[in-house]
């Protein structure tokens, strides 16, 4: 089993045993597909782990994106691998998907005549942007000076020591009432740490790809910056998430409006297959009251109720599909101009709630800043420094104070697989599990391991791009002809043209 290449190979004895068990003469007989079945089964067992690479929801295997921590809806592994994992988990095995056309991300983006982008973490990938996309990376100065303190990594020999130290750090910050965001690399890790925090009596929230947590994502993120809040998250909260110190008043206002509006306008049966014996599951829009920083005044509550009544009168009682209702709620919580009177009425109610909540969240923000701001705890280096920087970047935004620290173990996947002999030597030299290892040589070795991983995956992407370049000219011509056919007023002239070209080719031969 090669974890680095994510591949498996059978030994000579393995071939013999497989052929004996299956009662066949040749595992690679082209008339059968036993070789791919066996290899995929081993991959599914050894390389693809539940709650790390995928989750099982509603008796379906769903891929978890390692970079975002989110479920990749509708995506399936190819070449029979997904079916092998479905067999492993004992769920219904679905048909293999048929790929009609494919293109690498690099060539897809290069199809556009102009290409640009903006991100806070592109500087570490400067070389790749320049070599593949011919794009220069320019670093724009921050709007306000960045005063976040990034503490040096704490490294332990064993994973158990790392987790214990992380719990101690979280407990220390929690006692000081500082909000803490803990980044983990998988659903499994977030669940393990959550169990340890429960045992330590530290209240916390978990944000990962599991459905019960995804549904509460807005609620969890809205309060991640409040006094004493502890949030454990996979990479879901590491990017595209603005954690506001003291709590996000506008997020909370949206949740309050949602709580009162949705039960009145959403059709509870829409899209649900209902049998005569079984009623559809009852959807609750109720938000935990502890989320809100204060009770709303009678005047504001009256404004919300009036706005909801206007919406019900115009849109109908329990008549909208959930997705459409969510979309209308989103419009109501935006600041752009609108001519829709119902949206405008709901927006007035939303702003009234937000203004009332802001009085308390602004006061709480001052207290959070006084404690030192958001503290980010990393529990493993990612394959890319960019992802680590995204996690650190949740803290110290817009000139706010904050800090970050990574707790690592020499048993972490990145160092175990890519660390080489130097890391293995250090593991043998340091035998105490609970004592942190501090060494300049170690820091250099860990940085080198991470750079090695980045270069390894960059080379893979570069090779894929070079292979895809060969197909790209042919792909462009096929797509050009397809566009001609779609845009043509008459297909007859095209068919005549193709017939003439075919006859010319035959005559040349």
Summarize, please.
It catalyses: ATP + H2O + chloroplast-proteinSide 1 = ADP + phosphate + chloroplast-proteinSide 2. GO terms for molecular function: ATP binding; chloroplast protein-transporting ATPase activity. The protein is of the alpha/beta class and 509 residues long.
What do you see in this structure?
With 509 residues, the protein is α/β, with parallel strands linked by helices. The protein folds into three domains: 12-89, Pre-protein croslinking domain of SecA; 149-267 and 288-449, P-loop containing nucleotide triphosphate hydrolases (Rossmann fold), CATH 3.40.50.300; 451-508, no CATH class. Helix content is 50%, strand content 7%. It has helices at residues 12-22, 34-46, 81-89, 105-109, 126-133, 159-175, 187-199, 211-214, 217-222, 249-265, 298-315, 322-332, 341-371, 385-392, 413-418, 420-429, 440-487, 491-508, and strands at 54-57, 60-63, 149-150, 154-156, 180-183, 205-207, 230-233, 374-378, 402-409. Strands 3, 4, 5, 6, 7, 8 and 9 form a seven-stranded parallel β-sheet that branches. A two-stranded antiparallel ribbon has the order 1-2. β1 and β2 (60-63) form a beta hairpin. α16 (420-429) packs antiparallel against α17. Mean pLDDT is 83; it is low at 272-281.
């Amino acid at each position: 089993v090669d974890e680095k290449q994510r591949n498996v190979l059978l030994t000579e004895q393995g071939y013999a045993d497989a052929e004996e068990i299956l009662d066949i003469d040749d595992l690679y007989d082209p008339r059968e597909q036993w070789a791919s079945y066996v290899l995929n089964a081993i991959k599914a067992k050894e390389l693809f782990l539940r709650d790390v690479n995928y989750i099982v929801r509603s008796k379906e295997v769903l891929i978890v994106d390692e970079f975002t921590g989110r479920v990749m809806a509708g995506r399936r592994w190819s070449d029979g691998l997904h079916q092998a994992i479905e067999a492993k988990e004992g769920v219904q095995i679905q048909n293999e998907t048929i790929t009609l056309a494919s293109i690498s991300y690099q060539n897809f983006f290069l199809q556009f005549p102009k290409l640009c982008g903006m991100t806070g973490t592109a500087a570490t990938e400067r070389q790749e942007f320049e070599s593949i996309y011919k794009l220069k990376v320019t670093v724009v100065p921050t709007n306000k000076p960045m005063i976040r303190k990034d503490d040096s990594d704490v490294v332990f020999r064993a994973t158990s020591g790392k987790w214990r130290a992380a719990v101690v750090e979280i407990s220390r910050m929690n006692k000081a009432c500082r909000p803490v965001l803990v980044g983990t690399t998988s659903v499994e890790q977030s669940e393990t740490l959550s169990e340890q925090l429960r045992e330590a009596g530290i209240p916390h929230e978990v944000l990962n790809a599991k459905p019960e947590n995804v549904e509460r994502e807005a609620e969890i993120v809205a309060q991640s910056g409040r006094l004493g809040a502890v949030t454990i998250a996979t990479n879901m909260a590491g990017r595209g998430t603005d954690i506001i110190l003291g709590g996000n008043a506008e997020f909370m206002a949206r949740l309050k409006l949602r709580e009162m509006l949705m039960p009145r306008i959403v059709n509870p049966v829409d899209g649900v297959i209902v049998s005569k014996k079984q009623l559809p599951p009852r959807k609750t829009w109720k938000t935990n009251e502890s989320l809100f920083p204060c009770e709303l005044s009678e005047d504001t509550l009256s404004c919300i109720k009036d706005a909801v009544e206007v919406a019900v009168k115009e849109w109908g009682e329990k008549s909208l599909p959930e997705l459409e209702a969510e979309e209308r709620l989103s419009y109501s919580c935006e600041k752009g101009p609108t001519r829709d009177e119902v949206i405008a009425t709901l927006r007035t109610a939303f702003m009234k709630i937000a203004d009332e909540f802001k009085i308390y969240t602004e006061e709480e923000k001052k207290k959070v800043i006084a404690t030192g701001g958001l503290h980010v705890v990393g529990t493993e280096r990612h394959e890319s420094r960019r992802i680590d920087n995204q996690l650190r970047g949740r803290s110290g935004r817009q000139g706010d104070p904050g800090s970050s620290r990574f707790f690592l173990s020499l048993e972490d996947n990145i160092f175990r697989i890519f660390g080489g002999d130097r890391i293995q030597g250090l593991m043998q030299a340091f035998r105490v599990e609970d004592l942190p290892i501090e060494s300049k040589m170690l820091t250099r070795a860990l940085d080198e391991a991470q750079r090695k991983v980045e270069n390894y995956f960059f080379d893979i992407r570069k090779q894929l791009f070079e292979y895809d370049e060969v197909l790209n000219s042919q792909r462009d011509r096929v797509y050009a002809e397809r566009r001609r056919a779609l845009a043509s007023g008459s297909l007859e002239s095209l068919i005549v043209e193709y017939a003439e070209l075919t006859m010319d080719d035959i005559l040349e031969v």
